[in-house]
TrEMBL record:
Keywords, ordered alphabetically: Cell inner membrane, Cell membrane, Membrane, Transmembrane, Transmembrane helix, Transport
Natural source organism: Salinicola corii
GO cellular component labels: plasma membrane
Subcellular locations according to the entry: Cell inner membrane
The organism's taxonomic lineage, starting at the top: Bacteria, Pseudomonadati, Pseudomonadota, Gammaproteobacteria, Oceanospirillales
Quaternary state and interactors: The complex comprises the extracytoplasmic solute receptor protein and the two transmembrane proteins.
Protein name: TRAP transporter small permease protein
Top-level taxon in the UniProt lineage: Bacteria
Amino acid sequence: MSEQETDIHQDIQENLEILTRVPRLGGPIGRLANALDRVLLTLAVIALVSLSLTVLLQVASRLFLPITLSWTEELTRYLFIYMVALGAGVVQHRHRHVNVELFHGWLGFRGRAAYLALISAITFAFTLVVLPNAWQFAQIGAFQTSPTLRIPMLYIFLSSVVLFGALLLYSLIGLAEGITAMVRGDRAEATRQEAL
C-alpha cells in the first residue's frame, strides 16, 4: 500500500471515528485500562475460538458419528454469552458500538469531549442502577444447574455481572477522558496532530 493510500485510509477512518480523536487517559490509569483491555480481549478471543471449535465438533458429530453430542449446543450458548460480556466494555472504550453519527462531525474538539462525557455519564448511571439487579439475578443460579453440562447456573448468570461491571468501569474511564479533554481543550488535539 502506498503512502498516499495509507493517508487516505487513515483520513477515512478518522472521519468515521470522530470520538477516537478524544485522547485516552495516560499515566498509571491509562496503562491499567490498556492492560484490562488486553486481558478482556484475550478472554473474549478464547471464548470465540472455543465457540468455533465446539460448533465444528457439533457439526462433525452429526455428520460422522452415530450419535449427536447434546452438550455442544449448550456450551456454544454459554461461550457466546461470555464472549459478549467480556468484549462489551472494551468495545465501549474503543468507541466501536453501533451508533448514528449525525452531528459528530460538526462538533469541535471540546464538543466531542463533552459528548463523550455525557454518553459515559448516562452509561454509568444506567449500569449503576442495573448492576445490583444483575447480581440478584446471578444469585438465582446458585440453586440451579445446566441441563446437560451440569454446570451451576451461577457461573452462567454471573456473565451479566461481568458485562455491567465492565461497562460501569469503562464508563468511568470514558467520563474521565471526556472531562480531561474538555479541561485541556485544543492543546491535546494539537499535540496529537503534531505526533502524527
